[in-house]
Amino acid sequence: MSLYSSVARRRRESIFQINPNRPAKANFIITDLFTNIDEVTKKAFTSSASPSSLKIFLTSHHILNPTVLLALILLGLLTAVVSFFMDLAIQELQYLRLFFIQTSSEILNMGIWIIFCIVLCELAVFITSYLSKDAEGSGIPEMKAILSGVKLRNFMSYKTFFAKIIGVVFAIGGGLSIGREGPFVHISGIIATHISKIPIFSHIHSNLTLKNQFLAAAVAAGIASVFECPIGGVLYSIEVTSTYYIVSNMWRAAFCSIWCAIGIIWLREIGQMKVINSTDFPDVGLDLEIFSFIILGCLCGLLGALFINITSRLISLKEQNIYPMLYGRYRYTLLICIICAVVTFLTNYMRLNDMAVINDMFHSTFSEHGWDDYNLPFALLVFGICKFLLTSLSLSCHIPAGVLYPLLAAGAVFGRLFQQLASLVFTSDRHGVYAAVGAASLVSATTHTISVAVIVFEFTGQIHYFLPMIVSVLIAYTVSSSLTLSIYDAFLEIKGLPYLPSLKPAKLQAQCARDIMEYSYPQITISANLGDLVDAIEEASVFFSKIPVVDSEGNLLYDILVNSAKEYFISIYKERHSSFSPDTAGHLNNFLLYLEKKNKESMMGETFEEFLLAKENNEEVKKFLNISIDLKSEILNLDDSPFAINESTPLAKVHFLFIMLGLNQAYIIRKGALVGMISRESFTKSRNPA
Amino acid sequence: MSLYSSVARRRRESIFQINPNRPAKANFIITDLFTNIDEVTKKAFTSSASPSSLKIFLTSHHILNPTVLLALILLGLLTAVVSFFMDLAIQELQYLRLFFIQTSSEILNMGIWIIFCIVLCELAVFITSYLSKDAEGSGIPEMKAILSGVKLRNFMSYKTFFAKIIGVVFAIGGGLSIGREGPFVHISGIIATHISKIPIFSHIHSNLTLKNQFLAAAVAAGIASVFECPIGGVLYSIEVTSTYYIVSNMWRAAFCSIWCAIGIIWLREIGQMKVINSTDFPDVGLDLEIFSFIILGCLCGLLGALFINITSRLISLKEQNIYPMLYGRYRYTLLICIICAVVTFLTNYMRLNDMAVINDMFHSTFSEHGWDDYNLPFALLVFGICKFLLTSLSLSCHIPAGVLYPLLAAGAVFGRLFQQLASLVFTSDRHGVYAAVGAASLVSATTHTISVAVIVFEFTGQIHYFLPMIVSVLIAYTVSSSLTLSIYDAFLEIKGLPYLPSLKPAKLQAQCARDIMEYSYPQITISANLGDLVDAIEEASVFFSKIPVVDSEGNLLYDILVNSAKEYFISIYKERHSSFSPDTAGHLNNFLLYLEKKNKESMMGETFEEFLLAKENNEEVKKFLNISIDLKSEILNLDDSPFAINESTPLAKVHFLFIMLGLNQAYIIRKGALVGMISRESFTKSRNPA
């Protein structure tokens, strides 16, 4: 098939046109966990004749492999250090803001307060957008996508690292109501990526299984560093990032987060940082008050679903750009920032940071911050509503932002408010318990996790009240998850990342692989030439990472990674390029540039069209593209066990295979002959037909 | 191929002969998780024209599906009730034993004590062996095998249920040093199986995915009922039974175990049962004493590995039957029982049950039970060594037995002993913390779990001391798991259950599917007759659950469940049996009996050989077997998407596929043609070549 027609066809039926709701950016590559399983080990056995047993041990998955242990310790401690200094910076900014408003005039104070907030927030937006736009948002949805096999360009770069750190410090310092756990997870993910690139740890980087374990450990350490909760961190990270979890990975995640917790505890003791104080709740047994906690769980579940709904709508609304005047990056943040600054200035307790609010709620230290100056329930209600709305608004800005801390604070306040009501019926002394249960339940409803209960247990230092806690959390989780997606999945959907959507049962039952497979896909035969390879690379686009090789009867024999195919093309070009005329060399050079930069810069398309013209007209180029491919070449790295399934496999099974094996693509065969291909995109298409 | 030769060949190369170490019992069936995914849903769509949406909802995996919720509540509460009454019975037996030894003569007391123990223990052995031998042992390894797709016959029967309950009550009452968590897990698994057979819950039973989730919830509830620890129960059950875990299952497990915990707390409050008391440890931060906990972790790790080693050796020694005089079921228990009775009678503190020991250690209530009558460290040392050895001996008896409680007690005592040493260097007031950390670390080292830390947190009610706890537990886990298998995996290996062994990296890298596949396997062609089907059923033996169907060129088209094939054969026979002569009917009837009873009773082989003779000589039988198979028959339930992999697939990938998809067998193809089959047994064979 001619290259022209293939390009034209792809333009016509572009996958993005089929899904008009999804943004047309392709800054990701999808890798295939299943493909990688034997790759590294195969390399170890084919590259050197007999690797020493020490070398095998040092690159193995063994639990005592010292290089992995060292990398985990380093990751834990570095995350702790970064986390500590970020916390310190945020705390100092918050002190500074309070320091500035000590003039005698309240109006002057308010002006200073607002200007201080605006400057910091706009700086946060500027730095984020200048250094790396990938730093925007939470980071947890993207980590989830990465752990499921998607490779995001620039997401793990140094620029993103600094953009995220500075952005989140300035945004929280500037009074926006956002949390730190998402950004911390992202930051520790970046630290992990760069640690794994250090030469002595390079085997971690090249082994996708180990690398994923290492990244999962980074996610756990990121959570643990925010709340000093190694156990809760591990469990929470499992719940928010995984569909299934290899149980033996838990050990590495726990090992890393305990080092992180040790580091952070030690640093905070030195730095005398404020922390959430241990509580001293009474023992809570089983009595009628449990019904009160059941109602609290229901309410929190509804509130959580409402929060997810409002936040996603806000973001979608902004993306649709209905009022262009309003939705500019800087203007929008300015608006939100002024709202936040005005609201937080008004009363003493609104100025508190989330940790202080949580401490007040858990320990009933209300008079310290003026909660009960007028009327405690009224103050709680006002704070709760404001916090809820401000958090939702803040999340829609172009800044790095988490959700956990503000929601914990809002939940704790809501729990206390509910306790004021419940005290009309039950006269127990469980004030703080309601706050703790409310906090965990609201977060559970929003993030669809149960393990947040463990996080709250860890920072209260008690587990005496597990009964009301887990009952309420389970109910909140159930209510919310039967109403809506979790906030992280909602973000994933808005961002259009290729995570594997869950399909409706009816669809799973009624269809089979044949019904959703792609009929146009790249492929080459065993007697293909370079031109065919170029066609196939073009055809593979971003959604296929491998090209199948068939024999003359169409039987599927091997497959090749698109990247290996590119390398092979380049290596053949380099072998011969001295013999080309300058004109030909220019054309081919442009094409190579195109191959390398493809997906990064869309304007490279022109270079490619130029090449296409040359291909039709330039004899030398034609001759070059006529060279047969040597399938035995080491560069091509042929895989002789492509993953193929029968065309009549039910969709339920195909979906299960993609989830469990972390597949990116599967070949569909009929009696051994290749008849189609399925990629993750095929599932999304089948869910949202044009 | 003739049936005779196939039988003869299988006898010659029996899989059991290839693995002489594994016992020749075949009381299990292996099911295939992957096969079941679409089965139920397909049924729902094909059996009735359009099922009502309510019916679909009631059989769906939806989180709010009321039938599943109800089943989980019922399971949780029933487990709690059974657990409570078992605890009560054990407690009463222990009181009774102390009540009997109030005579004035110490020698008489000792006699009564020993006889009391012997009577109860022998009763336990008698009842277990009379009712159901499947009740012996822990139950957790078997549940692990079941959750990975192995079906154990009789393991979930009512007889086993009562045998396990009575056995464990009498054995603990009789002074053997065993725990309850393993038997409880088994018991709640049986409850789950029978609940899922109730008509309104029958969709749970027929849907393997839901059923497995339900069983996993039962395991969690079993653990939770022993320690009143819903969170720890869920995590522990995940760690001991799963290789990977579908994160969304966690919700169901947590939901079930919270109901169980509520039930048990309520019953214990009514029944005034003794429980492990909440502790009041001081806050433990980061200081130099952490090194002391590191050493404790190392020591516990070594002790745990030693325990596993000693126990497995004891059991293997017994199975090899070197001293037949010693190893009779009753005689052996008599021996162990006398040893236990004598040792426990000697001092006051040796008579305590595990819970009381744990309370003493955590709360320093030593004088109450005479720990410090002479010399505390000496008493601790004596108790520790005795407990360690007695537990190991008790586990080798033919009784239902868990390991958690006695090891927690031994670990707590060991922690206290270590604290006596550590107090020479550190003069802190953390006595109880050492006991708690020691208890968790020793269990962690033995069972290779981290979540036991959460269990201990839950029953101490505190989490203030998470730092020393998790450091020590991680170290103990690491040390032990780098030395040996976990105790549950060791039991699995001794019992010869077909769990998927982990393979050595070198083997995974050097071999591919072709190297381990079976060349002799059942198969039929699309034009097969009943005789071919019979051959294939015979050939399938216990290790293949499905029979492939190929076309005339050998291309793999469909497969059939062995059970469906049997049903089909029987249905055809029933259609025609009125037309047979009595002689023929007799032969075929015998054969049907053989088909139904096969694997259950080995002497049925003779019936089969008789049938073989008839097949050669009886014209009517020959004619019957010549009937062509109607592949479209609903009874055969043809699957048109058999799971096939390329013959050159590396072993690492094949192994990964089996683990992740819960496969029992896979077809090996070359260009679409069937060339071999791999079952779980193939992996075991390749690991232990003849």
TrEMBL record, chains A, B:
Topology in the lipid bilayer: Multi-pass membrane protein
- Where is this chain's protein located in or outside the cell? Membrane
Cellular component (GO) terms are:
membrane
What Pfam families does the entry give?
A: Voltage_CLC
Give the primary localization class: membrane
Instruction: Say if the entry is tagged with keyword Repeat.
Output: yes
- Transmembrane regions listed in the UniProt entry: 68-90, 110-131, 161-178, 214-238, 250-267, 288-310, 330-350, 371-390, 402-426, 433-457, 463-488
Organism domain of life:
Eukaryota
Molecular-function annotations in GO? voltage-gated chloride channel activity
Please name the PANTHER family in this protein's record.
Answer: CHLORIDE CHANNEL PROTEIN 2
What is the protein name for this chain?
Answer: Chloride channel protein
